């Protein structure tokens, strides 16, 4: 009701704004162009709803619930725009076949509006100047004065840029008209005179009326509801009369509230004022919600994925969301490697949420096919730091900026390893019925949290992780997913663990609730499968063939364990041959408990898959093959000089794999364990050097001794010869 009142007051204010040109209607497209160019709001919205001032809003107008899509705005039907079918369209648009007879209410994507707005204005000017074709038989304008040129400007401008509207004839009604059975219009457009019994109203009679500024003056009151009950026996016609009196009563209520806010004295009591403040009136004007059938240019048919005429499978596209960080990079390497091995049909896209500053230094552009998304980790409006909101924001951004022919979208998290195909035909996904996996800890679906944040709490389902959704459902759902995430995140009064199930009570799982509440809001009913995804460390269901490992929690086998959070600041992607601690050999798992054995084997498979992905990544990067001794020496020197960045893990050394494991140097206990292994390494080197020294010394001594012996031998021989010669000489003289 508040929205309707606000709409009523705005209508009056705008109606009284003086026209400054001979054709005031042109102010509408001109105002839109000006808003797009100068308003900060235009830079922070994805969807725009455009109304006329002479309208009463009876309930929320949500574009995705109406079926609006990028390239396909939603609009009401204006059947009298016959110029779409004759020479007028042929003269003023290059695509007369795209001319849609629409107006009244417009719900369109901001990108479409930016493309359309300048043409809307220029085409309006063009049609307005074409006086030779103002006649009623060409334009449908009963006055033949070119008054509806702006309406044709819109239709011709939209045709020019190729917009095809989702057209509906039920969402808006003129008071005095009879609605179709079962339809609750959301807009009352009082642009034409209407009456109920002897009472009547025409906005033209109040063109110069200063009723907004005259304290406590209202429009003539219409008949009371009980009087209308006796006027008409046909229930449908009677509904039309009730809509007429609701329209003027809402206008009058808006005036009362406006006068009170302007400081007017309290109005004198009357039967009519008493009615406007009564419970009966409040009940009659409760917000209405759209339940009408969407109308598209082509009929949408709900179908199971396999029900194709030629039995072909629908196209699939897989999405996962990440950020510009080494933490998400190694997860991307793991998921992409498993995607290639899984045989998953279709393509995959990484939704990379980054700030401009992050992108300047980012090194992982080649890790996956990527769609770049502005980061919302720091909310642009609230300043709240909540990186998880990047997931719905990125999906919405992708939908709004990428053309896809996929019929089903598979949404995964980055911290997943695929083990097989995830397809709609395997699990029965269809329009209106996505497939997902159970998240039992979302207890907010059963308590006050759901009652606060969705109109349909009974439809709230505890799901997440893996999602298979029809593209049409995703287009209706994505924006609401983002908005509900923001809404739950802002609801700090209900962060408590006993309400949300969040063990940290920090609002961290707001995005998960955003998903469930948004799905409930548009009545998506999930097919919940327990055999798609498993957390390593959990006992598997008997016979389940899981398609996804979700390593979001710590898991381990024996003395070995893995927790992704321990590797948040470690760059294993850009450090050659870096990897995680090797899990145990499956052959060593000898447990008699078969459940525990299966659990441990799955955990080992997940750990090995991550390391295999990293190994192949380093190989593709042409990392040099390093000598084992050189690698150990390098690491030892780093530890000794207190410049440790990555250190070797004990498990890899024990297996002589020669490929050093990297972990965060800040983890002091691990550093101490690594440092404790340094002295034996140095001792072995000293022993090696000592052995070589002894060998050299022995050889040197041997050579010296040999040379001494030879020298002594030849010296003694020379002396003997010399004595012999002296002896012979003496004998000769004697």
Shape designation: elongated
- Biggest beta sheet attributes: 7 strands, mixed
Major sheet: arrangement of strands: 12-11-10-13-16-15-17
From the 3D coordinates, which CATH architecture of the largest domain would you assign? Alpha-Beta Complex
Q: Which percent range fits the helix content? A: 40-55%
Provide the fold topology:
Elements: H1 2-15, H2 27-38, E1 47-50, E2 55-57, H3 63-66, E3 74-77, H4 87-92, E4 102-109, H5 110-129, H6 136-139, H7 149-161, E5 166-168, E6 172-173, E7 187-189, E8 194-196, E9 199-201, H8 225-231, H9 235-261, H10 271-276, H11 279-284, E10 316-323, H12 326-342, E11 347-354, H13 356-361, E12 370-374, H14 390-401, E13 408-413, E14 416-418, H15 424-427, E15 435-438, H16 448-453, E16 463-470, H17 471-490, H18 497-500, H19 510-521, E17 527-528, E18 533-534, E19 548-550, E20 555-557, E21 560-562, H20 594-620, H21 628-640, H22 650-654, H23 668-676, H24 678-733
Parallel strand pairs: 3-5, 6-7, 10-11, 10-13, 11-12, 15-17, 18-19
Antiparallel strand pairs: 1-4, 2-7, 3-4, 8-9, 13-16, 14-19, 15-16, 20-21
Organism: Dichanthelium oligosanthes
Pfam families: HPAT
InterPro entries: HPAT-like, HPAT/SRGT1-like
């Amino acid at each position: 009701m508040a929205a309707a009142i606000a709409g009523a007051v705005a209508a009056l204010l705008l109606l009284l704004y003086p026209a400054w040109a001979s054709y005031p209607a042109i102010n509408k497209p001109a105002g839109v162009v000006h808003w797009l160019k100068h308003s900060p709001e235009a830079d922070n919205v994805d969807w725009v709803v455009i109304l006329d001032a002479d309208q009463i809003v009876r309930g929320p107008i949500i574009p995705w619930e109406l079926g609006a899509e990028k390239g396909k705005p939603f609009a009401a039907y204006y059947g009298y725009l016959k110029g779409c079918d004759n020479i007028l369209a042929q003269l003023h648009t290059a695509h007369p076949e795209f001319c849609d007879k629409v107006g009244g209410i417009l719900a369109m994507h901001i990108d479409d509006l930016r493309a359309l707005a300048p043409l809307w204005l220029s085409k309006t000017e063009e049609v307005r100047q074409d006086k030779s074709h103002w006649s009623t038989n060409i334009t449908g304008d009963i006055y033949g004065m070119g008054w509806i040129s702006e309406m044709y400007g819109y239709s011709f401008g939209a045709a020019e840029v190729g917009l095809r509207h989702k057209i509906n004839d039920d969402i808006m009604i003129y008071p005095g008209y009879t609605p179709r059975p079962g339809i609750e219009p959301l807009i009352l457009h009082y642009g034409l005179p209407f009456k109920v019994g002897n009472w009547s109203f025409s906005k033209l009679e109040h063109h110069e009326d200063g009723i907004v500024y005259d304290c406590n003056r209202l429009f003539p009151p219409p008949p009371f509801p009980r009087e209308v009950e006796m006027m008409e026996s046909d229930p449908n016609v009677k509904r039309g009369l009730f809509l007429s009196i609701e329209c003027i009563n809402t206008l009058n209520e808006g005036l009362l509230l406006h006068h009170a806010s302007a400081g007017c004295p309290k109005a004198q009591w009357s039967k009519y004022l008493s009615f406007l403040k009564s419970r009966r009136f409040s009940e009659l004007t409760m917000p209405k919600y759209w339940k009408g059938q969407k109308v598209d240019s082509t009929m949408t048919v709900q179908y199971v994925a396999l029900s194709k005429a030629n039995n072909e499978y629908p196209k699939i596209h897989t999405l996962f969301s990440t950020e510009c960080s080494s933490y998400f990079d190694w997860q991307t390497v793991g998921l992409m490697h498993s995607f290639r091995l899984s045989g998953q049909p279709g393509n995959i896209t990484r939704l990379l949420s980054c700030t401009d500053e992050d992108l300047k230094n980012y090194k992982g552009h080649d890790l996956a096919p990527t769609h770049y998304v502005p980061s919302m980790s720091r909310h642009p409006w609230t300043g709240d730091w909540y990186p998880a909101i990047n997931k719905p924001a990125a999906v919405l951004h992708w939908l709004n900026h990428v053309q896809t022919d996929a019929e089903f979208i598979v949404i995964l998290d980055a911290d997943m390893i695929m083990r097989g195909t995830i397809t709609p035909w395997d699990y029965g996904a269809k329009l209106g019925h996505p497939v997902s996996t159970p998240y039992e800890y979302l207890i907010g679906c059963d308590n006050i949290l759901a009652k606060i944040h969705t109109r349909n709490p009974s439809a709230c389902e505890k799901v997440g992780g893996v999602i298979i959704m029809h593209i049409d459902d995703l287009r209706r759902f994505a924006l609401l997913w983002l908005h509900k995430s923001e809404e739950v995140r802002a609801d700090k009064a209900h962060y408590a663990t006993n309400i949300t199930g969040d063990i940290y009570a920090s609002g961290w799982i707001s995005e998960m609730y955003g998903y469930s509440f948004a799905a409930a809001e548009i009545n998506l009913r999930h097919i919940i499968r327990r055999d798609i995804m498993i957390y390593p460390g959990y006992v598997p269901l008997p016979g389940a063939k899981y398609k996804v490992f979700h390593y979001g929690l710590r898991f381990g086998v024996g003395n070995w364990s893995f927790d992704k959070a321990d590797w948040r600041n470690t760059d294993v992607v850009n450090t050659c041959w870096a990897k995680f601690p090797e899990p145990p050999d499956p052959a060593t798992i000898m447990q008699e408990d078969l459940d525990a054995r299966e659990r441990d084997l799955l955990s080992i498979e997940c750990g090995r898959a991550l390391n295999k992905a990293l190994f192949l990544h380093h190989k593709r990067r042409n990392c040099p093959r390093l000598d084992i001794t050189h690698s150990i020496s390098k690491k030892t020197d780093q530890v000794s000089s207190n410049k440790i960045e990555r250190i070797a893990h004990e498990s890899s050394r024990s297996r002589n794999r020669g490929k050093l494991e990297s972990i965060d140097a800040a983890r002091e206990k691990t550093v101490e364990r690594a440092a404790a292994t340094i002295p034996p390494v140095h001792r072995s080197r000293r022993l090696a050097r000592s052995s070589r020294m002894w060998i050299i010394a022995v050889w040197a001594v041997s050579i010296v001794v040999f040379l001494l012996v030879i020298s002594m031998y030849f010296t003694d021989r020379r002396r003997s010869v010399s004595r012999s010669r002296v002896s012979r000489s003496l004998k000769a003289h004697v």
